[in-house]
Amino acid sequence: MSGAALALVLSAAVLHSGWNALSTRGQNPLCFLWSAGTLATVLCLPLGVRALLADGFPASALPYVFATIVLHAVYFYALGRSYRSGEFSLVYPIARGFGVALVPIFALLLLDERLSPLGSTGVALVVVGIVCLQLTSRGWTGMVAQLSHVGPGTWWALFTGVMTASYSLVDKAGVAHLHPVPYIALMFLGMNLLLLPVIMADSTALRREWAANWRTILIASVLTVTAYLLVLFAFRLSKAGYVVAAREVSIVLSALIGSLWLKEGRLGPRLAGAVVVLAGVACVALAR
């Protein structure tokens, strides 16, 4: 990987972990995420419309766009519930790592793509890291007993990971039919419209979130779009496997942010679990 590509990916990892951490500071994480996504739509939609006017919208892309909208809506709902129920330094590595580990498993079941030994090792490391993070939230004694008392934040994070794997497979096929810029713009637009009834069911919470955190929401929306664009540019400079592996440095960053900034607990155990997850993700990403 070139130095320029590495710099882009590492910057994207910092921004991604940053906007996720900011969302946990909101009074209602789901309202925060939806608000940031709405502003992100405003930021990227003009570029998407411009691309659509220039190249058109192929009918073959419609099923993929529809599927990614639905999956991303469920993903953001689950992510909001995760952050409302669990600590950032535990939820984020699980949601990110589990999703990446599931991609080759889903590909095996749906596309008959076989796991390599390195990929299988990566999946196993992700599972071990997730178990370590779960134990971190409850201490290191009585491990067997603790495994039967998984908190709601962990369950929502695991479900978020399932959604991540699902939309990753859809998007892998979707961008072959439609350029990534209009693809992601339509995804943001459709996702926010689909979640609108859920958000408006508690419009008071939405108004409170805007009143208390509108500046942070604005920052998070800019970080979201910028992180995505940096990854797009990195894909143009380096192999996809290297980019995917490097961007998951955000998993380790989440342990640092959660422990040092959000004061969620001791850094050592969280960092150890996050590093194991990261190692597994790297194996999956680099497997051939």
Could you explain how this protein is built, in words?
The protein is built from 12 helices and no strands. It starts with a helix and ends with a helix. The chain has helices spanning 3-23, 29-55, 62-85, 88-111, 117-136, 143-147, 152-174, 180-200, 203-237, 240-247, 249-261, 267-286. The longest helix has 35 residues, at 203-237. It is 84% helix and 0% strand. The model is unreliable at 140-148 (pLDDT under 50). It has 288 residues and is mostly helical. The chain has one domain (3-286).
Helices and strands in order:
Layout: H1 3-23, H2 29-55, H3 62-85, H4 88-111, H5 117-136, H6 143-147, H7 152-174, H8 180-200, H9 203-237, H10 240-247, H11 249-261, H12 267-286
Helix pairs in contact: 1-9, 1-11, 2-3, 2-8, 2-9, 3-7, 3-8, 4-5, 4-7, 4-11, 4-12, 5-12, 10-12, 11-12
List the total number of helices: 12
Radius of gyration: 18 Å
- Span of the ends, CA to CA: 17 Å
Strand count, sense and barrel status of the largest sheet are: none
Order of helices and strands: HHHHHHHHHHHH
Structural class designation: mainly alpha
Shape, please? Answer: globular
Features:
single chain, 288 residues, mainly alpha, 84% helix
